[in-house]
């Protein structure tokens, strides 16, 4: 497995983790949801953007 693929998988798992924590916090509807829901959403979007960017780099590198 290439280093870029490992980085992509790490950020994909990070995005999944942020979604799972956000859903659990929303289901519990506790203090965590009120204080950190926006931060979790931003973290998820950041992880997804990095994963997509790494994916585009992998595709670009494989064509050249």
Question: How large, in whole angstroms, is the Cα Rg?
Answer: 15 Å
Say how many strands there are. Answer: 0
* Spatial shape: elongated
- What is the helix content? over 70%
The description of the largest β-sheet is: none
Mean pLDDT across the residues is 87
Which regions contain 5 or more consecutive residues with pLDDT less than 50?
none
Number of helices: 2
What does it look like?
- The chain is mostly helical and 64 residues long.
- 92% of the residues lie in helices and 0% in strands.
- The chain has helices spanning 3-28, 31-63.
- α1 runs antiparallel to α2 (31-63).
- The longest helix is centred in the C-terminal third of the chain and has 33 residues, at 31-63.
- The two termini are 18 Å apart.
Question: Could you give a quick summary of the protein structure above?
Answer:
It contains 2 helices and no strands. It has 64 residues and is an all-alpha fold. It is elongated and about 50 Å long.
List the helices and strands and how they pair.
Elements: H1 3-28, H2 31-63
Features:
2 helices, mainly alpha, 64 residues
